[in-house]
């Protein structure tokens, strides 16, 4: 593939991830008010977030495996179409069970977008370019997650249903454009076509034997901790400070914008200067500190500041972990990307479900739990690195 086609492909992959994460982010400021229509609260919010992650957990490994066999494009396009339909269904829902069905289908669609996209990036980049490519995808993810809440909060002032309709229509258009424009390349795998297809349990067992297994555990634990914050912040601010969807949108959007700007301009430089593992470790500590601080601060500016620092830290962690896993994966990029998304989804599933229950018990409890989880993730990553991979503390994996 020529450099020009690579750039076009990368731009479309970024666009698709932007649309996917924008659709996820768009519900954050709207959901507390939207759920009032159905007479439900924090516990249902947590389980709605969890069922999205459950679908991702179940189907991400399948998506990664199939994309290794048959190419990335068909699954990216199909995932966007399913995702778009599910978002529209969420806006049309008249019963709580339909909300759960729509969120499950959204997670199913996202599972067939995210692993193939990350594997596609690995296919069209060299090892030296990998960090930059993953950083650009990470920036698109963060930008979507940033603009989504802002747009959701704005559109919610007109109609609480409309943000979901818009997210669905844009995802459908992205699927059509990807089908027309995105190059269809062959995955850079060795013998993937001839290997027997593995079920989820078999793939999870195989992941334990990979050289990057500890990184998958890091993905799970930090996703668990972060999901507590992301899933409950909107409800926390609504219940404690009576924030409106617009107020919540500002808090989430400005934090995300700061993270995206820093990620676009300095994350690749940080990887090259300090190595991905140091970036992960430092930002796990920052995320833990800011998560517990959100309990004690008050006033819009202080809440905005703490939330922004938390989001910047998490924006730096994701591409660092993705890059390391991709470098360790070799030819099995689809499998690695699927496992990456599966472990992330498992953390995103358990975290919000537990946080929703804890939120109705005591407002501060999800953030306390999340802080301990993030600190535990730091201890795990630091201990493994010092014992098994000390080179990661000094330089990138070659």
UniProtKB/TrEMBL annotation:
UniProt cross-references to SUPFAM superfamilies, sorted A to Z: MFS general substrate transporter (SSF103473)
Main location: membrane
Protein's membrane topology: Multi-pass membrane protein
GO CC terms: plasma membrane
A single MF term (Gene Ontology): transmembrane transporter activity
CDD domains assigned: MFS_MdtG_SLC18_like (cd17325)
Parts of the chain that traverse the membrane: 9-31, 37-62, 74-94, 100-122, 134-156, 162-182, 212-236, 248-267, 279-303, 367-384
The entry's keywords: Membrane, Transmembrane, Transmembrane helix, Transport
Every Major facilitator superfamily (MFS) profile domain range: 9-388
Pfam families to which the protein is assigned, alphabetical: MFS_1
Subcellular location: Cell membrane
InterPro entries reported in the protein's UniProt record: MFS (IPR011701), MFS_dom (IPR020846), MFS_trans_sf (IPR036259), Sugar_transporter_CS (IPR005829), Tet-R_TetA/multi-R_MdtG-like (IPR001958)
Stated family: Belongs to the major facilitator superfamily. TCR/Tet family.
PANTHER family (alphabetical): MAJOR FACILITATOR SUPERFAMILY DOMAIN-CONTAINING PROTEIN 10, MULTIDRUG RESISTANCE PROTEIN 2
Protein name: DHA1 family multidrug resistance protein-like MFS transporter
Organism the protein comes from: Ureibacillus xyleni
Lineage: Bacteria, Bacillati, Bacillota, Bacilli, Bacillales
């Amino acid at each position: 593939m020529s450099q020009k086609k690579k750039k076009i492909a990368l731009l479309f992959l970024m666009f698709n991830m932007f649309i996917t994460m924008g659709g996820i982010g768009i519900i954050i400021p709207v959901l507390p008010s939207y759920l009032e229509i159905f007479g439900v609260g924090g516990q249902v919010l947590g389980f709605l977030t969890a069922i999205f992650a459950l679908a991702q957990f179940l189907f991400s490994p399948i998506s990664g495996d199939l994309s290794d066999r048959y190419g990335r494009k068909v699954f990216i396009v199909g995932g966007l179409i399913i995702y778009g339909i599910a978002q529209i269904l969420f806006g049309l829902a008249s019963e709580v069970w339909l909300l759960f069905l729509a969120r499950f289908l959204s997670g199913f669609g996202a599972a067939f977008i995210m692993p193939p996209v990350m594997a596609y990036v690995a296919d069209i980049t060299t090892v030296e370019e990998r960090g930059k490519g993953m950083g650009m995808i990470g920036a698109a993810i963060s930008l979507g997650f940033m603009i989504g809440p802002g747009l959701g909060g704005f559109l919610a002032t007109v109609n609480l249903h409309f943000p979901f309709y818009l997210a669905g229509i844009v995802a459908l258009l992205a699927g059509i454009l990807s089908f027309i424009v995105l190059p269809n390349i062959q995955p850079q795998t060795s013998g993937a076509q001839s290997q027997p297809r593995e079920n989820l349990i078999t793939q999870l067992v195989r992941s334990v034997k990979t050289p990057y297994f500890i990184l998958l555990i890091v993905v799970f634990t930090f996703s668990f901790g972060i999901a507590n914050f992301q899933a409950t912040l909107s409800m926390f601010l609504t219940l404690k400070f009576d924030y409106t969807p617009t107020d919540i949108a500002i808090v989430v959007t400005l934090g995300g914008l700061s993270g995206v700007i820093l990620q676009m301009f300095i994350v690749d430089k940080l990887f090259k200067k300090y190595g991905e593992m140091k970036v992960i470790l430092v930002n796990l500590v920052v995320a833990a500190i800011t998560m517990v601080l959100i309990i004690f601060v008050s006033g819009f500016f202080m809440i905005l500041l703490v939330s922004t620092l938390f989001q910047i830290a998490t924006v730096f962690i994701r591409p660092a972990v993705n890059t390391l896993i991709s470098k360790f994966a070799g030819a099995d990029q689809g499998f690695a990307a699927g496992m990456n998304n599966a472990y992330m989804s498992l953390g995103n599933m358990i975290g919000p479900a537990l946080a929703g229950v804890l939120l109705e018990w005591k407002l501060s409890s999800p953030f306390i739990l999340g802080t301990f989880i993030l600190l535990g993730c730091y201890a795990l990553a630091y201990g493994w690195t010092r014992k098994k991979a000390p080179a990661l503390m000094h330089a990138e994996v070659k």
